[in-house]
Design goal:
The complex is a heterodimer of chains A (337) and B (383).
Chain A (H helix, E strand, L loop, with lengths): L6 H17 L2 H8 L7 H9 L18 H14 L5 H15 L3 H8 L5 E3 L7 E2 L6 E6 L2 E6 L6 E2 L8 E2 L7 E5 H33 L1 E2 L2 E2 L4 H30 L4 H27 L10 H13 L4 H13 L13
Parallel strand pairs in A: 1-3
Antiparallel strand pairs in A: 2-6, 3-4, 4-7, 5-6, 8-9
Helix pairs in contact in A: 1-4, 4-7, 4-8, 5-6, 5-7, 7-8, 7-9, 7-10, 8-9, 9-10, 9-11
Chain B lengths: L6 H17 L11 H16 L18 H13 L8 H14 L2 H12 L5 E4 L15 E5 L2 E12 L6 E7 L10 E7 L5 E6 L8 E12 L3 E2 L5 H13 L6 H18 L5 H29 L8 H23 L15 H9 L9 H12 L5
Parallel strand pairs in B: 1-4
Antiparallel strand pairs in B: 2-3, 3-7, 4-5, 5-8, 6-7
Helix pairs in contact in B: 1-3, 3-7, 4-5, 4-6, 6-9, 7-8, 7-9, 8-9, 9-10, 9-11
Classes of the chains: A alpha+beta (337), B alpha+beta (383).
């Protein structure tokens, strides 16, 4: 029993954070916001050179063969940097599902090389992200997960998040590569992990603003009202992180209760990010209500990811069945049931 | 990260479980905040010690078992699973004990730790004063050096367990000219020494759970001082860290409360308000999150790390989840919530628990103080 992030994992995470801080800062988000495609071939090339698409692709297929625990740590960094590229969906959700399904070596190799991108379609969402950027689609029919190459286009939907590219769902088809539930659990876990990264970014922005903005002759961050708002948000964020890690391990190990832990993770992360978004705009005052301050990119991402891959009602229903319904053993001694 | 118990850890759990099943009193004890209940709880401490379960993480030389923090968590889980009584010596074993372990001399460790683990000496804390609550550096109680003794004069208040306990620990101003955090020393004293007067204070529930202490030229040997003269503030901050951080409130306590709350909800489901269902689920989720976080902190400490200002995150989280869970139970009980005894005459533990939970956000440094610490020390906001 050890509940610890190894030094290797911390080093990898820090490396990704440093890299993204250099190439994927707010200037880039603002530039993408005014571009037609909202995507950048240069940025994608950089992510590929960093080896990020292949993180969870088995080593024999040209990847790094990392775990879902590594995936949630990296996903948080993508959230922190505001990355909207289809990297998380392809590398952190589709790749481990395809590796588990077997028989998809060529596609996994193409993912690791940055040549293939997989869009994820599930009935829990009324949209498909990055459909027209994708080479393949994972979709759902009768509870089964189907894989096919993408053909044809779809209607572009308009998200409040200027960097999300959402499309109307298409007809499901393809070869059976697993279950719809597995897609939902993996994608909800990665959404939760991105949400804490999004929350951390908003915390950092609000904290910086509180240190630098002066009123009544002193930084507003010296006032207890502001301090306590931010401290309350930190508590929520920090206590969501171990829940996400616990869910990642449960899902990786195929624990029977894994989906309950994924739902707990999604609820905790969405609560933390949503609360942080309101704290962050309040800390910024009127500046926070503008398009000029970068905060809005992360705030909108928080709203989007909070509703994606199962909303509050969806995930509470799964907790309800397990905890109130009695399917899951609870109480002291059942910390890791 | 490896989230499964080893065979040795499972064996240890079975050993604790068997002992608890054979030894935990079948009937709940009277509250430890009353004199009769206090003595029942002292008896329980001694029974625990007879099984060598007084403080499992301490070295064997001091009455412990030399176990690691994961084993301590397993012990706590089995302790609460069995419904064992509250630890009347918690101020000793969870706060003073780790402090003596870190700052005490070998002589002090032998003198104070072993009787603590054995339940022979029950400890009270004596931090606050009438004008030094959240602002603890405003302490004015003095301990003036006189040869190989200190002479203590002054007043302490909200002193938990002091109505009945044997010994106390607290901060005293050993340099009468000093101000604020300087010139304070951490001193242990016999509550039965000449010159100590205890005035029990009735708490919200009506029982004298804490007391005011009056010191009238109480002579205390110099060897009762922990660490150097004038170093008391740093020692006390370390003690406060133990209190807020890992040990005082183990997750099993809240997991047990969440489990009972789920059962209460099932019994009241048909007449429960719609929001209650979600609040019950939140109680379970928060207790689990606290457990994961505690396992993470324990793992970090075992790997050579330490817990600093992030202890303040823990204190806010457990105290607020505890209050919310008990408030939910009170609301589920509805018109029965005010009754001190429920069907069959059993004490209404939800009411008792809710009253106690209201102290959580206040003691061990109010949650406002914890939020200041988070903002200033974790986020770097200006003071």
């Amino acid at each position: 029993m050890d509940f610890i992030i190894t030094e290797d994992q911390a080093t990898l995470t820090q490396g990704v954070r440093d890299y993204l801080a250099g190439v994927h800062g707010p200037e880039l988000l603002r530039a993408l916001d005014t571009s037609d495609s909202r995507r950048s071939a240069d940025v994608w090339r950089g992510l590929v050179e960093m080896g990020l698409p292949g993180l969870l692709v088995p080593e024999a297929r040209g990847g790094l063969g990392l775990s879902l625990l590594d995936a949630v740590l990296i996903a948080a960094e993508l959230g922190r940097a505001g990355v909207a590229e289809p990297l998380a969906d392809t590398a952190l959700v589709a790749a481990p599902l395809l590796a588990k399904a077997g028989g998809q070596d060529a596609l996994l190799g193409a993912i690791a090389a940055g040549e293939a991108k997989v869009a994820l379609q599930h009935p829990v969402n009324p949209w498909v992200a990055d459909l027209e950027d994708a080479s393949h689609i994972l979709s759902v029919k009768n509870g089964a997960l189907l894989l096919t190459e993408r053909s044809g286009d779809s209607e572009l939907l308009d998200s409040v998040d200027p960097l999300r590219r959402l499309y109307a769902p298409v007809a499901a088809s393809g070869v059976d590569v697993g279950s719809a539930d597995a897609l939902l659990d993996h994608a909800a876990l990665i959404a939760a992990a991105q949400l804490v990264g999004v929350a951390d970014a908003m915390l950092e922005q609000a904290t910086d603003y509180a240190k630098n903005r002066s009123q009544f002759g002193q930084p507003i961050g010296s006032f207890q009202a502001v301090k306590h708002h931010l401290a309350t948000a930190v508590v929520k964020i920090e206590f969501a992180k171990p829940v996400i890690q616990r869910a990642a391990v449960a899902l990786a190990e195929g624990t029977a209760s894994a989906s309950v832990h994924v739902s707990h993770a999604k609820l905790a992360a969405a609560d933390a990010a949503w609360a942080m978004s309101e704290t962050a705009i309040q800390t910024h005052g009127a500046m926070g209500y503008t398009y000029e301050v970068d905060l809005h990119f992360w705030m909108k991402r928080a709203w989007a990811l909070a509703g994606a891959w199962g909303d509050r009602a969806f995930h509470l229903a799964r907790i309800d069945a397990a905890v109130i319904g009695g399917a899951l053993p609870i109480g002291p001694g059942h910390s890791f049931a | 990260m490896h989230l499964a118990y080893t065979p040795e850890q499972q064996d240890f759990r079975a050993e604790v479980r068997a002992w608890m099943e054979a030894n935990v009193p079948k009937e709940p004890l009277v509250t430890l905040e009353r004199e009769d209940g206090y003595h029942q709880h002292v008896e329980w401490e001694r029974r625990l010690a007879s099984g060598n379960w007084g403080m499992v993480t301490w070295p064997e030389a001091y009455g412990g078992r030399g176990l690691d923090l994961i084993q301590w968590l397993i012990f706590e889980e089995e302790y609460y699973r069995a419904g064992a009584p509250l630890r009347v010596n918690q101020n000793g074993i969870f706060l003073l004990g780790p402090t003596v372990m870190e700052f005490g001399t070998d002589e002090q460790k032998a003198r104070f730790l072993t009787p603590m683990a054995k339940g022979e000496v029950i400890w009270a804390q004596a931090w606050s004063e009438p004008n030094a609550g959240s602002d603890m550096a405003a302490i004015t109680s003095k301990a003036i050096r006189d040869g190989d003794h200190y002479v203590i004069s002054g007043q302490k208040t909200w002193s938990s367990r002091a109505s009945f306990a044997d010994w106390g620990f607290g901060l005293f101003r050993t340099d009468p000219e000093s101000k604020r955090h300087k010139g304070l020393s951490f001193i242990l004293f016999d509550l039965n020494a000449p010159g100590v007067t205890r005035r029990p204070i009735r708490q919200l529930h009506g029982d004298p759970g804490f007391a005011e202490l009056f010191f009238d030229e109480v002579r205390v040997p110099v060897e009762n001082r922990i660490a150097g003269e004038g170093e008391g503030w740093n020692v006390a901050m370390a003690t406060a860290g133990f209190e807020r951080g890992l040990m005082l409130r183990s997750p099993a306590r809240f997991q047990a409360a969440a489990e009972r709350l789920v059962k209460l909800f099932r019994a009241h489901e048909t007449k429960a308000a719609p929001a209650a269902r979600e609040q019950v689920m939140q109680a379970w989720m928060d207790a689990q999150a606290y457990a994961y976080n505690t396992y993470a902190v324990a793992s970090k400490i075992m790997a050579g790390g330490h817990i600093g200002a992030e202890a303040s995150l823990n204190k806010i989280f457990w105290s607020e989840l505890d209050r919310a869970a008990h408030r939910t139970a009170m609301q589920l009980l509805g018109a029965s919530a005010e009754l001190r005894h429920l069907d069959g005459g059993a004490l209404n533990m939800w009411l008792e628990g809710y009253i106690f939970s209201l102290s959580g956000p206040i003691y061990a440094g109010s949650n406002e103080i914890q939020r200041n610490i988070i903002a200033e020390r974790l986020l770097g906001l200006p003071r």
